[in-house]
Design goal:
Layout: H1 3-7, E1 25-30, E2 36-41, H2 50-57, E3 65-69, H3 75-84, E4 88-92, H4 98-104, E5 110-114, H5 115-125, E6 136-140, E7 146-149, E8 153-154
Parallel strand pairs: 3-4, 4-5, 5-6
Antiparallel strand pairs: 1-2, 6-7, 7-8
Length: about 180
Amino acid sequence: MGCHAFVGIRCRYASHRQLDVPTGHAIIAVDPTGENQIILFPGANREISEDQIGAALSAASAGDILVMQNETNMQAEAAQMGRDLGLKVAYAAAPFDAAAVQAVLPYLDYLFLNEVEAEQLRDATGKTPEALGVADVIVTLGARCFKAEPSRQSFCSCSCRILSSRLLRSQCCLCS
């Protein structure tokens, strides 16, 4: 069974080439207070070519959303290709690397950070989340949930409320 048959995701652009590099993987550890730590081994995830990105984006249409995170190489190139195609570009900065985030900032519509990453990015850029030039910055607050910038909306402390913005609308599953 292909991956798409099981989870409803189209995987036709996933590359199935043999590399002399082990498969990449990440381990996410969550402590009892809801804070996480990501342990990453990039492996083959950092072997993506510009041609592979171009092939994957070839079926995208203006207004589609390109979702990326910091586990692969070629992020700035992919983000720029997406923007040039008229896609909305969403980027999760985990696992955090300030230089990688700064490289994609000019192309982003949505930036997802946890509060530690937001502080590290502020230290690296000298800018608060609302001053980064990204339309929507979502800062997760661990077990306390998240806030959205630049609207500065904060949400309940139950840890399950979903962003209420132009992107998504939802009710808290515990508080509604």
